[in-house]
């Protein structure tokens, strides 16, 4: 998606999931002496969609647009072209105004 032709082809924003899996249970992303890489392997689905834009430096934002049955947020990621933070923040603010989430908290949170 870092190809400029996507943005020059008339698209302003890209919408994707933030993660490839719902929020895990507390303790799921841990390792053990017997499996020292378990947390690393288990964490892979949680960076699959954000990784390309973290590496490319494109502006992106995750918005909590859905909540699971266990009251955990599920994010939608918006990505803008290089230097288009203004568009990303403007659209994100409009979405937050239409579907506020600031007051929502999962039952278990830090």
Structural summary, described in words:
- With 110 residues, the chain is of the alpha+beta class.
- It has one domain (4-98).
- Helix content is 28%, strand content 19%.
- The protein has 4 helices and 3 strands; from the N terminus they run αβααββα.
- The protein has helices at 4-8, 38-43, 51-56, 85-98; strands at 13-17, 60-67, 73-80.
- It has a 3-stranded antiparallel sheet, with helices on one face.
- The protein is flat and about 50 Å long.
SSE blueprint:
Layout: H1 4-8, E1 13-17, H2 38-43, H3 51-56, E2 60-67, E3 73-80, H4 85-98
Summarize the entry for a quick read.
The protein is α+β, with helices and mostly antiparallel strands and 110 residues long.
Number of domains: 1
CA-CA gap between termini:
34 Å
Number of strands: 3
Radius of gyration: 16 Å
> What is the overall number of helices?
4
Strand order of the largest sheet: 1-3-2
Strand content: 15-25%
Helical content (DSSP H or I, runs of 4+): 25-40%
What's the overall geometry? flat
The low-pLDDT segments are none
Q: What kind of sheet is the major sheet?
A: 3 strands, antiparallel
Order of helices and strands: HEHHEEH
Structural class label: alpha+beta
Mean pLDDT: 90
